[in-house]
């Protein structure tokens, strides 16, 4: 049975909201103490797998939406399409913040590693 445009739009909105929640959960996991790292690695890996699956589903649904329905059919659901747009912006901002945070942590680790290496040379 073929899905209607509104059903696909609702699916995209649902998956987008799930992605945001999962990204928030991933951020919280990364902020946990170092003593919990072993268990944390497994959770991060599982969350990464879930994120990737949700991203694929979301992308497929969006492609299906624009492939199967005309602009006139989509125009009827303009409010929900705007909701998708807002969620897109939130996802991009969240990913950018996460990426910047990861970059700064990596740079801090590199600086620490350099200090450790210098200390060991003396």
Architecture overview:
The protein is mostly helical and 122 residues long. Helix content is 88%, strand content 0%. It is built from four helices and no strands. The chain has helices at residues 5-30, 37-68, 71-75, 78-121. The longest helix has 44 residues, at 78-121. The termini are far apart.
Apparent shape: elongated
Largest beta sheet, briefly? none
Q: What proportion of the residues form beta strands (DSSP E)?
A: under 5%
Helical segment tally?
Answer: 4
For the residues shown, what is the average pLDDT? Answer: 84
Helix share bin: over 70%
Structural class by SSE content: mainly alpha
For the secondary structure, the number of strands is 0
List unreliable stretches of 5+ residues.
none
Gyration radius, in Å: 20 Å
One letter per element, helices H and strands E, the order comes to: HHHH
What gap, in angstroms, lies between the N and C termini? 72 Å
Briefly summarize what is shown.
By secondary structure, this protein is an all-alpha fold. It is 88% helix and 0% strand. The protein contains 4 helices and no strands.
Please outline the helices and strands.
Blueprint (H helix, E strand, L loop, with lengths): L4 H26 L6 H32 L2 H5 L2 H44 L1
Helix pairs in contact: 1-2, 1-4
List keywords for this structure.
0% strand, mainly alpha, 4 helices, elongated, 122 residues
């Amino acid at each position: 049975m073929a899905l209607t445009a509104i059903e696909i739009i609702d699916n995209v909105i649902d998956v987008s909201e799930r992605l945001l929640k999962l990204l928030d959960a991933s951020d919280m996991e990364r902020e946990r103490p170092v003593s919990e790292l072993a268990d944390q690695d497994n959770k991060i890996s599982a969350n990464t797998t879930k994120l990737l699956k949700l991203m694929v589903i979301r992308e497929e649904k969006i492609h299906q939406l624009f492939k199967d329905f005309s602009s006139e059919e989509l125009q009827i659901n303009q409010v929900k399409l705007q909701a998708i747009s807002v969620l897109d912006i939130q996802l991009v901002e969240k990913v950018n913040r996460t990426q910047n945070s990861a970059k700064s942590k990596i740079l801090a680790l590199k600086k620490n590693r350099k200090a450790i290496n210098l200390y060991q040379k003396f």
